[in-house]
Automatic annotation (TrEMBL):
InterPro entries (alphabetical): Epimerase_deHydtase, Lipid_A_modif_metabolic_enz, NAD(P)-bd_dom_sf
Superkingdom field: Bacteria
SUPFAM superfamilies listed in its UniProt record: NAD(P)-binding Rossmann-fold domains (SSF51735)
Segments forming domain NAD-dependent epimerase/dehydratase: 4-206
Gene3D superfamilies assigned: NAD(P)-binding Rossmann-like Domain
Protein name according to UniProt: NAD-dependent dehydratase
PANTHER family referenced in this protein's UniProt entry, alphabetically: BIFUNCTIONAL POLYMYXIN RESISTANCE PROTEIN ARNA, UDP-D-APIOSE_UDP-D-XYLOSE SYNTHASE 2
Amino acid sequence: MKKVLVLGGTRFFGKKLVERLVGEGAGVTIVTRGNVPDPFGGAVTRLQADRTDKAALSRLLGSSSFDVVYDNICYTPQEAEDAIALFADRTGKYIVTSSLSVYPFGEERLSERDFDPYRYPLPHPLPPKGDYAEGKRLVEAVVFQKAPFPAAAVRFPIVLGHDDYTRRLHFHIEHVQDGQPLGIPNPGAKMSFIRSDEAAAFLAWLGRSELAGPVNACSKGEISPGEIVSFISEAVGKPADIVSETEQIHMSPFGVPEPWYMDTEKAEAAGFAFEQLNDWLPDLIREIAAGRSK
């Protein structure tokens, strides 16, 4: 039985990942602070700790080792350094969730070579938690420059789903339903997205794969914020009020200044088949809209 440790496995795609791993027959241990209840019952082992408390987590891990460690909640270079120290003799592969945010905006489709964590400068001392995008760049740099074990960093775009606790797609649907302005600086900017179920499926697959290094993961096809809002308007039967500037509380979380979309050739060449964006996004919009209107 494969032994797997998951940090960040009690909500959103991390929760779906654990469900998949349990369904595949893996022996799953989750690290949780105990603040969020989980539905796994006796199917998983729980270690109650804050991942930022390296000493406490080390004591709980004891002499345990794992075939794969998934780290969905690593946001700072110090957390990455702590993970390397914790898992140096405890894992066969380390998979950290990274982000499209490591890349700049621009017209070109982004591939893994557009950000090189193997040569990215590491400051001394390591900075505390700050800018999200820079934090993810430094996390990757620490992992790929210092880890003694095989590692992969999954660069996800914005992840969408019914269970998105940040409610980014819900935000747009609610604004259109309520007739509120939507601040979108560039409605035509192409963007990548991925569904929470697909993100979990990709992570589970990557744990079985030999693929390592940075890897992009997103659904096939791009869509602009303006096109998303058009789908929403059709679903709710109301026009959208799109403006370039408005109060901050009405500014879209999809409001990028330029296109921001990824190439997935590396993952596809290794054998993963991504879903078509248009096969799930319009349905998701309709389902969320219908759920709110009940």
